[in-house]
Amino acid sequence: MKYRRESFGTIDGQTIWQYWLENSQGYQLAVTEYGATITHLIMPDKAGKMANVVIGYDHLGDFVKQQAYFGATVGRVAGRIAHGTFELNGHKYQAPINNGLNTNHGGPHSFESQIWHSAVVEKNDAISIVFTLTSPDGENGFPGNLAVTTTYTLNEANEWLVDYQAITDKTTLFNPTCHVYLNLTGDFDQLVGKHTLQIDSDRFGAIQPDGLPTGELVPVTGSVFDLRQPQPLQAAFDSSAEQNTLVNGFDHPFLLNQTQNTADAILRDPESGRSITINTQGNAIVVYTANGFGDEPNLTDKAIQPHQAVAIEAQMMPDAIHHAGFGNIVLQPGEQYHRQTRYQLN
Ligand code: BGC
């Protein structure tokens, strides 16, 4: 294992560091202090050809311009909170509205656009970059001083790991996610329709047209949401017109069955032979097929376009605070929060 650190640019005169981690098989993971963001993930195809498989830019300025959370750590609360309101211990809280009538991804200027502190932890068979941030009491309406750690690890087993840790001094909400967008072809001129996606989920969360979960958990049987066997993403793109549950593709949470010894999700590109197997400790995976792309800086010579990548966001169910059965995202003082997601790169 080895790593190098380089300047990724400056913000207000402060150097923003980028780290490149590399294992002995040549897999590389690049991350930056801006948003505790993954900027590159380089892995081989079946012929051994290395390519970057995540949306990212070579320049910090492009990350600052885009608003689609490319590779970022999302928090305090991933996904929408209805009307930005919630109640804890009898207190009503209001987070700023930044998405239609709701708060999305922790509100404006959240974790994704903050400058995190970084440190390196080196082991024989793994290197981690540990990003830390303190979100002050009341930031974006959320109670409690929240000390957050996002740790990215690359190891010799060709795994990439994301660990979130947090402590708070007041009861608060916490539900972070890793907003990396994958395109396993390694060629961002190709769309992801031929990728197959498998998710161990019997029920998905229905959403309104604005993306807010309705609270209803719908059996996947007999629909394009049935990903219990691998299905091409193109099926969801093609049926978007007639299935009004879709929104030009997926932007939906899947409630995980959490079956032991079964992968939570597998994304595969049959042509390149690349695949990523995901196991997470959260109860959901949100699949967002980049349906709204258009305003972000280009990735290639061509304009960025919908379906150019897919985000597979491991988290607790979105808007969990308002729906019984969506899981607990309340963090209490004295509690040590830890959640891990493991991505096996093949
Ligand atoms: C959300 C989408 C949103 C995208 C970029 C996804 O996680 O589910 O609705 O457009 O992030 O903000």
From TrEMBL:
What domain of life does the native source organism fall in?
Bacteria
Q: What is its EC number?
A: 5.1.3.21
Residues that bind beta-D-galactose: H179, V180, Y181, D251
Task: Quote the function comment for this protein.
Answer: Catalyzes the interconversion of alpha and beta anomers of maltose.
Q: What family, per the record?
A: Belongs to the aldose epimerase family.
* Enzyme class of the recorded protein, top EC level: isomerase
A Gene Ontology biological process term = galactose catabolic process via UDP-galactose, Leloir pathway
Q: Mind listing the UniProt keywords for this protein, alphabetically? A: Carbohydrate metabolism, Isomerase
Q: Which InterPro entries match?
A: Aldose_1-epimerase, Aldose_1/G6P_1-epimerase, Gal_mutarotase_sf_dom, Galactose_mutarotase-like, GH-type_carb-bd
Gene3D superfamilies recorded: 2.70.98.10
Q: Know the name of this protein?
A: Maltose epimerase
Q: Where is the active site?
A: H179 (proton donor), E313 (proton acceptor)
